[in-house]
Specification:
This protein is an alpha+beta fold. The chain folds into three domains: 257 residues, Bira Bifunctional Protein, Domain 2 (BirA Bifunctional Protein, domain 2, 2-Layer Sandwich), CATH 3.30.930; 64 residues, Herpes Virus-1 (2-Layer Sandwich), CATH 3.30.40.230; 90 residues, 3-Layer(aba) Sandwich (Rossmann fold). The protein is 31% helix and 27% strand. The protein contains 15 helices and 23 strands. The chain has a seven-stranded mixed β-sheet with strand order 3-9-10-16-13-12-11, with helices on both faces. A five-stranded mixed β-sheet has the order 20-19-21-22-23, sandwiched between helices. A three-stranded antiparallel β-sheet has the order 5-4-6. The chain binds adenosine-5'-triphosphate. The site of adenosine-5'-triphosphate has 16 residues, from strand 10, strand 13, strand 16 and helix 11.
């Protein structure tokens, strides 16, 4: 039996919809398969996750430079990267129920992971499915179409005159923006190899089997960096990023038992090493991020297809060479999902009450602090506190309902501190601060509040 998370996906999806984290895309039109919109609480969580990643991997990483490249790129980029020729998956349709599947997934699921379809030809996969009478996981029939290659790149077109349109692609990965800018960044920043270029941005893949909420979607955001180094230092860089990638997740309070490394069984012909970090999602262990040793493949291909030299000139040795690339890439939305699953808790309180609480790392919490006047006639003072704190932090102001109910609402969206303004506050300029996790309360001077909160929410 595969291990499972305690929390179910249904609970996460419901909480997300009801509490303003994530809504189904185009909801009033019945949705649009596997698109999701981040709501007011979710956008804060996701932005905080992206900020934490950027802080760790750009701000605090010497020799790492950020970029924000265009989503639409010259189509030759995708010829050079191999996507126009090879970026497709083997799909089979069930003729009985019309559900669509990836042939390799059917084989791996049927054999409970004992048979890997990596490296099988379409004929070999069809033969395995026929020999083993692999049935449709949806309706149980054995009634398949032959395998067809399903293109994963979204096409669109540009051009102003009807009939004279050129196909362009929505990028299926962000890293090509770093490769094509390798020399621009190197020259403008006077960067010396080894150095890395990092980016956070949207990618688009026409996935055959999207699903599991925001785990696999057709539009998603990647946070990734490409380290350009000498071949002889590349394995050290690879091991280093494995450690850093893991440490980042642990520092976000992901429990070590929910993470594991998974080495790729079969490597792309150019790759020298590749591994993923898996997270224990509610549906089982699955990829959260990847670390790949990509040799000199990417820059060599761009040199070949663009006709421009991609070589780096070492200013000390005068040696000219094409750097080796080590890639570290993590899906922002997959990390949002992992963080939501990890933070979710249902606690029984003294007296038998239960509360749902999201134990986010305070740096990731959508709101850092909620300001709650004990009674409505304290709102003037409470508004002053809100005005003070909202200069520094995302704050919520809530004066509706009993204080207990208001605490529960903040627990559900993971607000680490609730500040209660009461009648004593009018006399002595102090407030009560309640800690989300311990539920302990302490009296703090209004003048000290900003520092009190700031030092507890750093990452
Ligand atoms: P998978 O095997 O899950 O399809 P991949 O190996 O193709 O992923 P990469 O191309 O290495 O993924 O992309 C890097 C990261 O981007 C992944 O580790 C994942 O976190 C994220 N990612 C990839 N595809 C999707 C998707 N369709 N939806 C959401 N996130 C994705």
């Amino acid at each position: 039996m595969e291990e499972k998370q305690k929390v179910t996906m249904d609970k996460i999806v419901n909480l997300c919809k009801n509490r303003g984290f994530i809504f189904p895309g185009s909801d009033i039109y019945g949705g649009m398969g596997n698109t999701w919109d981040y709501g007011p609480i979710g956008v804060e969580l996701k932005n905080n996750i992206k900020r934490a990643w950027w802080k760790r991997f750009v701000q605090e990483s010497p020799n790492t430079y950020g970029v924000d490249a265009a989503i639409l790129m010259n189509p030759k980029v995708w010829d050079a990267s191999g996507h126009t020729q090879n970026f497709s998956d083997p799909k089979m349709d069930c003729k009985s129920c019309k559900e669509r599947f990836r042939a390799d997934n059917l084989i791996e699921e049927h054999s409970h992971g004992n048979v890997s379809a990596e490296g099988m030809t379409n004929e070999q996969m069809e033969k395995y499915i026929a020999d083993n009478k692999v049935k449709c996981p949806h309706c149980g029939n054995f009634n398949w179409t032959p395998i067809r290659q399903f293109k994963l790149m979204f096409e669109t077109s540009r051009g102003t005159v009807d009939g004279e349109k050129d196909i362009v692609y929505l990028r299926p990965e962000t890293c090509q923006g770093e490769y094509v800018n390798f020399l621009n960044v190197q020259r403008s920043m006077r960067a010396k190899v080894p150095f890395a270029i990092a980016q956070i941005g949207k990618s688009f893949r026409n996935e055959i089997t999207p699903g599991n909420f925001i785990f696999r979607t057709i539009e998603f955001e990647q946070m990734e960096l490409q380290m350009f180094c000498r071949e002889e230092n590349s394995f050290e860089a690879y091991e280093n990023y494995k450690k850093q990638a893991q440490q980042f997740l642990l520092d976000l309070n992901i429990c070590p038992e929910h993470l594991k490394f998974h080495d790729h069984e079969k490597l792309a012909f150019y790759a020298k090493a590749a591994c993923d970090i898996f997270y224990l999602f509610p549906m089982g262990w699955n990829e959260l991020n990847g670390i790949h040793h990509r040799s000199t493949h990417d820059l060599s291909r761009h040199q070949e297809f663009s006709g421009k030299s991609m070589a780096y000139l070492d200013p000390v040795t005068n040696e000219k060479f094409i750097p080796t690339v080590v890639e570290y890439s993590i899906g922002a939305d997959r990390l949002v999902l992992a963080i939501l699953c990890e933070a979710y808790d249902e606690e029984t309180l003294e007296g038998g009450d239960t509360r749902v609480v999201m134990h986010f790392h305070p740096a990731l919490a959508p709101f850092k602090v909620a300001i709650l006047p004990l009674q409505k006639n304290l709102s003037e003072k409470a508004r002053e506190v809100y005005a003070l704190l909202s200069k520094q932090f995302m704050c919520e102001y809530d004066e509706a309902g009993s204080i207990g109910k208001r605490y529960r609402r903040e627990d559900e969206i993971g607000t680490p501190y609730c500040v209660t303004v009461d009648f004593d506050s009018l006399e002595d300029d102090t407030v009560t601060v309640r800690d989300r996790d311990s539920m302990k309360q302490e009296r703090v001077k209004i003048d000290d509040l900003t520092d009190y909160i700031a030092k507890r929410i750093t990452f």
